[in-house]
Amino acid sequence: MYGTLRRRLTLFLFPATFLAALYACLPHLGMLSPSWREVVPYAAYLALFLGLFLSFHFNRSRAFFVTLLLLAFCWNSTLLSRGGEGAASFQRLDDILVFLLPVNIALFCLMREKGLFTSAGRKRFLFLCIQAIVLAILAKNAHAETLEAATSWAFGAIGNARDLPRSATPVIGACGIIAACTSLVRNSIIDSAFLGVLAALAIIFTHAPVGDVQPVFLFGAGVILSLSILQDSHNMAYRDDLTGLLSRRALNEALTGLGRRYAIAMVDLDHFKRVNDAYGHDVGDQVLRMAGAKMRMVKGGGRVYRYGGEEFAIIFPGKGVEHVLDHLEELRNAIAAYRFAIRGPDRPVPSRQGKKLRADGRAVRHLSVTVSIGVAESSDGVKSSREVLVAADAELYRAKQRGRNRISSP
């Protein structure tokens, strides 16, 4: 459990590090040449338009709409900085967006990814359009004094900073907690990017709307969103959705980059078809997730891949068969010793409730599964990685023939 939590906490590593680096570089922007200084205000638009393109291309509706909101805020801030006749209206929109942006981002955190070109995607777009229409009406028809009187309850200036409403601080904090929780629960890099965006907005809102803070951190928000979309798409291509393990495509690439010495183990669940036939594919999926979680904890530096169906592959770089047998035996015992509770169609979704039922002895029956393992190694670089994989698969077949729930090696 500690390892899983640690892996999930790494989701926040890049956004936090990147924003900290931007903050550290902020005082040094004045050293840029005049030509580069002129580029700074446009960098935010460049990063946000890149995020908009990537989210559209990869059909990530939540990231698309959040980027659209950031672009609207950036555009309004640009108009506000130019002054002129409509400056009062743009200021009021800026004041409202201090609340509206974090709340919308939190709402998108709570939503599931449904794609852009779906009924849910159209409804979400309509939701944002209604907000835009209401804001446009307020900006066009309301006098600055009237709107100031209507919203004066919320506003109080923070010294030498933006006219940030005092009540906006807990709102942004609550929205950040929502984003952090959804990131940890879903193990979602997109949600962790939303938390990074909220952190960037918090920095922007607590600084005066002049200078480089706003364009720099809007640029940071755009970069965080863009990279999260690319990473999420990479995970879809190279990770198995069911188990969270690396997929066969990742295995095929890993096989081409191994050194002269390595071992490969092929692991297969015994009698898995009987599990599906007796308990249904939902229980079968849960068994696969359990087995994947156990294999992820294998020692000896093994990298685990889902090969296909109920078969898995483990690569041990720089190791021979004699170095990995104890680790594989420990893995085999851990899976065989695990008792999987079968409670029928009323099985509770929350894991805590399930643990409580198991503690109360209310499970109807238990299921235990075993695995057979075949392992082979490269011999002084003579064998290709494909040949070693085939040899490990042959050893797996021998383990099945010898009675299953065992390890076979040359």
List keywords for this structure.
410 residues; Rhopdopsin 7-helix transmembrane proteins; 7 strands
Description of the structure:
The strands form 2 sheets. This protein has a 5-stranded mixed beta sheet with strand order 2-3-1-6-7, sandwiched between helices. The relative contact order is 0.09. It has helices spanning 2-9, 13-25, 34-57, 61-82, 87-110, 119-141, 144-151, 168-186, 189-205, 213-238, 248-255, 272-279, 281-296, 321-337, 351-359, 385-401; strands spanning 262-269, 303-308, 311-317, 340-342, 365-367, 371-377, 407-408. Helix content is 63%, strand content 9%. It has 2 domains: 2-238, Rhopdopsin 7-helix transmembrane proteins; 248-408, 2-Layer Sandwich (Alpha-Beta Plaits).
Low-confidence stretches: 142-161, 345-351
- Give the CA-CA distance, first to last residue: 35 Å
What fold name stands as the CATH topology of the largest domain?
Rhopdopsin 7-helix transmembrane proteins
Describe the main β-sheet briefly: 5 strands, mixed
Described by the principal axes of the CA atoms, the overall outline is elongated
Gyration radius over CA: 27 Å
Mean pLDDT: 82
CATH class of the largest domain: Mainly Alpha
The number of distinct helices, counting runs of at least 4 residues, comes to 16
Helix coverage percent: 55-70%
> Taking strands numbered 1, 2, ... along the chain, how are they ordered across the largest sheet?
2-3-1-6-7
SSE series: HHHHHHHHHHHEHHEEHEHEEHE
Structural class: alpha+beta
The strand count comes to 7
